[in-house]
Amino acid sequence: MSCNTSVTRVHVSPVGQAPRAPVHLLPCEIEHNGPAQVSQFFIATTKDRKYGTLTIEKTVSFRGRGLKGQELSCPQGYTGLVLKEINKPGSDQEDRTLKVSSVFDKLTYWNLETPPNSDDTIVMAMDWPELAEAIHVPVED
Amino acid sequence: MASMKKRAPREQNDSWVVIAADSVVDTHETDSEPAFVRLRNPSTDATCLYMLGAGDVQLYEVKAFEEDFHSWFVGQTVQRDGRLLFITPMDPLYLMLPYLNKAGKEGKFQPVDQIVMDEEFPACSRLLSCTHSLASLHHIAEEKEVGSLKFHRYSQEKTMSWLKKKVERTVVALRKKNISVGEGVKSTTYVRVKSEYQEEDYLRYAHGLISEYISEDLSKALLKHLQLPELTSPKETEPPSKKRKLSDKPVEAGDDYTKFNSVDFSRKPPKKMTAAQKTLAKADKTGMKTMSSFFSPKVKAEKK
């Protein structure tokens, strides 16, 4: 089990310089990793349904399907990071390195047809850090 | 699900979407950097990825939130892997506890750096560098000082009252966040059902969450300590709600980063694993454990 000795370092020092990138969680699996014209064909066609000045729902058509979405902020005290591996080693015995390729403070998630609501699992997931805090803050004496 | 189109196997990913505690990236005080390390999961004994912050001052838990059929757009790129990883501060005492517990069987006081060591997981001795580690050992062990040296011996009694405090705090947080702790799937409509739960529901739920971090024996002892009777046969309430259920994907061979604990947000009543499941879970050294945590202490055994 010597592979347990290798570690994966994260270069976090350039977080201040890392670009902000919009992140969207889509309700489908796309069998691709790599560049795509996201702004041109996706972001450019999203519409905000507003109530006064408040955006209550976003809509977009993706591959002929109507998606409904909303923005979610990262929980208080938390930052969104996209980590990317640099110089992938050949074996699992070697240390690996990740860098922060972009940062975000909110993400947009999209449902297929269903309007976004507080029972969406991703919305509930955002409760995890606060619950984890209760479980993990050291017990004082 | 049989009609589902076969998907191409996931190739190795080299990019991950993460929500991390700010302290992970605030490293200006030290020259070192945070790192993912492999450590023994205290509940399943399997290899899991955790993170040690810069200078090893803080331990973090890494959990994957995962739903079937999701992918990301990140800027102008597509990322097929639709998981969202959470990196949250973790109490290192949970990971040290199994080592103290084991050493305690010998019944003698020992220096802690001789207790918390593991040939299979060399990173575990770095847990002792975390800010609160040494100062909080007295919650789970008796201490003896001889000159300038300190010796420790596991104490079940202390451990139980420490774990009870953990459960109590968790109950407070569950109430505050209005998290649904009742049995079964509450609602498939769009409105969160806020019914009145009994104190026992909260206690059991919190016990389930804490049990994700302790051995099965300790989990049983804690249940007793909390004066909760063991549920002999879990009530079968849940209809299969595909909507709610997040799958725990099997670990893909060769991709180290899939060895996170994963998130399961399905609302299920607390349920103990069967002996067979437990065995399977232990056998699976690839280490993907469910974050059932959030919401139930069930651990699914993966089949390859």
UniProtKB/TrEMBL annotation, chain A:
<dbReference type="InterPro" id="IPR052863">
    <property type="entry name" value="RNase_H2_subunit_C"/>
</dbReference>
<protein>
    <submittedName>
        <fullName>Putative ribonuclease H2 subunit C isoform 2</fullName>
    </submittedName>
</protein>
<dbReference type="Pfam" id="PF08615">
    <property type="entry name" value="RNase_H2_suC"/>
</dbReference>
<dbReference type="GO" id="GO:0032299">
    <property type="term" value="C:ribonuclease H2 complex"/>
</dbReference>
<dbReference type="InterPro" id="IPR013924">
    <property type="entry name" value="RNase_H2_suC"/>
</dbReference>
<dbReference type="GO" id="GO:0006401">
    <property type="term" value="P:RNA catabolic process"/>
</dbReference>
From TrEMBL, chain B:
<feature type="region of interest" description="Disordered">
    <location>
        <begin position="231"/>
        <end position="282"/>
    </location>
</feature>
<feature type="compositionally biased region" description="Basic and acidic residues">
    <location>
        <begin position="233"/>
        <end position="258"/>
    </location>
</feature>
<protein>
    <recommendedName>
        <fullName>Ribonuclease H2 subunit B</fullName>
    </recommendedName>
</protein>
<comment type="function">
    <text>Non catalytic subunit of RNase H2, an endonuclease that specifically degrades the RNA of RNA:DNA hybrids. Participates in DNA replication, possibly by mediating the removal of lagging-strand Okazaki fragment RNA primers during DNA replication. Mediates the excision of single ribonucleotides from DNA:RNA duplexes.</text>
</comment>
<dbReference type="InterPro" id="IPR019024">
    <property type="entry name" value="RNase_H2_suB_wHTH"/>
</dbReference>
<dbReference type="GO" id="GO:0005654">
    <property type="term" value="C:nucleoplasm"/>
</dbReference>
<dbReference type="GO" id="GO:0032299">
    <property type="term" value="C:ribonuclease H2 complex"/>
</dbReference>
<feature type="domain" description="Ribonuclease H2 subunit B wHTH">
    <location>
        <begin position="94"/>
        <end position="222"/>
    </location>
</feature>
<comment type="subunit">
    <text>The RNase H2 complex is a heterotrimer composed of the catalytic subunit RNASEH2A and the non-catalytic subunits RNASEH2B and RNASEH2C.</text>
</comment>
<dbReference type="Pfam" id="PF17745">
    <property type="entry name" value="Ydr279_N"/>
</dbReference>
<dbReference type="GO" id="GO:0006401">
    <property type="term" value="P:RNA catabolic process"/>
</dbReference>
<keyword id="KW-0539">Nucleus</keyword>
<feature type="domain" description="Rnh202 triple barrel">
    <location>
        <begin position="29"/>
        <end position="91"/>
    </location>
</feature>
<dbReference type="InterPro" id="IPR041195">
    <property type="entry name" value="Rnh202_N"/>
</dbReference>
<dbReference type="Pfam" id="PF09468">
    <property type="entry name" value="RNase_H2-Ydr279"/>
</dbReference>
<dbReference type="InterPro" id="IPR040456">
    <property type="entry name" value="RNase_H2_suB"/>
</dbReference>
<comment type="similarity">
    <text>Belongs to the RNase H2 subunit B family.</text>
</comment>
